[in-house]
Fold this sequence. Notes:
About 35% of the residues lie in helices and about 25% in strands. By secondary structure, it is an alpha/beta fold. It has a single domain, classed as 3-Layer(aba) Sandwich (Rossmann fold), CATH 3.40.50.300. Strands 6-7-8-3-9-10 form a six-stranded mixed sheet, with helices on both faces. Strand 9 (about 205-210) and strand 10 form a beta hairpin. The radius of gyration is 18 Å and the shape is globular.
Amino acid sequence: xxxxxxxxxxxxxxxxxxxxxxxxxxxxxxxxxxxxxxxxxxxxxxxxxxxxxxxxxxxxxxxxxxxxxxxxxxxxxxxxxxxxxxxxxxxxxxxxxxxxxxxxxxxxxxxxxxxxxxxxxxxxxxxxxxxxxxxxxxxxxxxxxxxxxxxxxxxxxxxxxxxxxxxxxxxxxxxxxxxxxxxxxxxxxxxxxxxxxxxxxxxxxxxxxxxxxxxxxxxxxxxxxxxxxxxxxxxxxxxxxxxxxxxxx
Length: 249
């Protein structure tokens, strides 16, 4: 089966500094794949390269077997959407929820916007009563639900998730993660998820790549990470540093 997302030898450089150095991975259709590592390891840069927001020096990116060029066409955004880390910064403060959801539908020429907006809000557990509220009238968790609704409204097959719960209170994180897992099952979505939290990655993902300084350290099944079956010292140090992940004997 053709992978939903294929990365081969990807290198991203900023002023001769290699933010990514020959990264390769494949994410199968319907799979959830995690990227973990400390800040500056290149995790978010990889997502930016996929969306065309980072300068690719070498390598290829493929979606459903089709190689992407330097620019991203409309069809790309029908298939691939991204949920950002900060729900406070990703929503325009002067636009209502209705306008935020209507905009991508208008850009892509959907005629049934009314039904799609109501369905998207219901799917993320908000309902039509939130349509005409502004972001400042919403909690952090509600804002992130709107961001997820906006990503889902074009019915993509791939979601790129950049630390989607790290800006939320711990009590809200589980709700948003459960929502994401539910929509992945319901829609058969493919996830590429960035997180510094190893517990989140093992809960949400089947496979993962550990990254350091723009390079791959090792690749694991999530079950191996949870059982501490790792081969590299860097990964062991991440396990120790991940608060709450390692229990005292």
